[in-house]
Amino acid sequence: MPESKPRKKDTYTPPPSKKPVKIGSPRWVAPLMLTFFILGLLWIVAYYIAPTAPIMSDLAYWNVVGGFVLIGLGFVVSTKWK
Question: Which terminus has fewer CB within 10 Å in the chain: N or C?
């Protein structure tokens, strides 16, 4: 019976080194998130303290919606925070 040829093994080459991945969030995320939370809270509180103020009375209950929108934007930005 004929003898098979031995296979030559390729020399081991290690995979190329990878650059380290930066884990973390940009510096602007936390201040923006807190700003949205605080502005939303202040808007709602200002409406409940002075509902007859010139701008507040024109918007009526839309002030509450605006405050919650700002707080919601704070939560959206918080998803980027690590």
Answer: N
21 within a domain of the structure (yes/no): no
Confidence (pTM): 0.71
16 domain residue, yes or no: no
Residues 6+ apart with CB under 8 A from 81: 25, 29, 30, 33
Determine the structural domain holding residue 56 and report its residue range.
29-78
Q: How far is CA 56 from CA 32, 35, 42, 71, in A?
A: 24, 20, 13, 18
> Which DSSP string corresponds to 10-63?
PPP-PPPPPPPPPPS--TTHHHHHHHHHHHHHHHHHHHHH-TTSHHHHHHTTHH
49 CB neighbour count, 10 Å cutoff: 9
